[in-house]
Amino acid sequence: MRQEIFLGKLPLLISDWPDFKDHKQKIINTCLEFEKINTVESQIAPRAKHNLWESTFDFLEQQQSLINLKLWIVEESASMISDLNKRNYRTVITESWAHVTRFGGYHRPHYHNCSTWSGIFYIDSDIEENGNNWYLPYFIERKAGLDFADDSFSSRFVPGRMILFPSMLMHDAEPYQGNHARILIGFNLICL
After folding, report:
1. 147 occurs within a structural domain
2. Local structure of residue 46 (DSSP, 8 states)
3. Alpha-carbon distance 47 to 83, whole Å?
4. Domain boundaries, position 19
5. Which residue, 54, 120, 150, 179, shows the most beta carbons closer than 10 Å to its own?
6. Long-range contacts made by residues 21-25, C-beta under 8 angstroms, separation at least 24?
7. What is the pTM of this model?
């Protein structure tokens, strides 16, 4: 399933990996094997993150057991971005990382520098409501007659789902209230 959602003119591109069920347990095991509880290995903005593990920014590159996921992300991203722009692009993942979030963990609002598109691939969570929030870089004052104005979008956590978004789009993860780990892989990419 593919879907496009627009915040103003900025798109969020959504796709579900059809082969996810065949790879889910391997991906979960790999992320949990390398988890260092409450550690930001990337060393990027550690104060913006709480009660989560963030790997180094070469996670998909280092984990050869996740090559099928990496190839699908690259191919599906290129296809969706090309369809949106009506122009053929090749995509290259420049950074990728795993997040394992425990109860109460969160990631404050932020955006990603030095990339064109960013993405989140949801792997496992016991709470569907704990996806992510995206915000336009401006706020629309709520007045009568501006009911159409959507300046934010909140996703549901659907295992096997990828959400692509322009890297400059502000986003966050609210405090996680689940009992089991919330596991995802984030990435940045450029178009060639």
Report:
1. no
2. G
3. 38
4. 2-141+152-191
5. 54
6. 21/160, 23/66, 23/68, 23/69, 24/123, 24/124, 24/159, 24/160
7. 0.94
Look at residue 139 in the predicted model and tell me its pLDDT. 62
Q: How many domains does the chain have?
A: 1
Rounded Cα–Cα distance for residues 113 and 94 (Å): 12
Q: Tell me the DSSP string of 8-39.
A: TTEEEEEEE-TTHHHHHHHHHHHHHHH--TT-
Alpha helices in the chain (DSSP H): 20-34, 59-62, 67-85
Q: Beta-carbon neighbour count of residue 105 at 10 Å?
A: 23
CATH number at residue 21: 2.60.120.620
Structure tokens at 127: 């709470």
Q: Give the chain's residues under pLDDT 70.
A: 138-142, 146-150
For residue 147, what pLDDT is reported? 64
Give the C-alpha separation, 183 to 122, whole Å.
7
Please provide the size of the chain in residues. Answer: 192
With tokens 């209230």, the residue in question is 177
| Strands 91-110 and 170-173, sheet pairing | antiparallel
Identity at 47, one-letter amino acid code: R
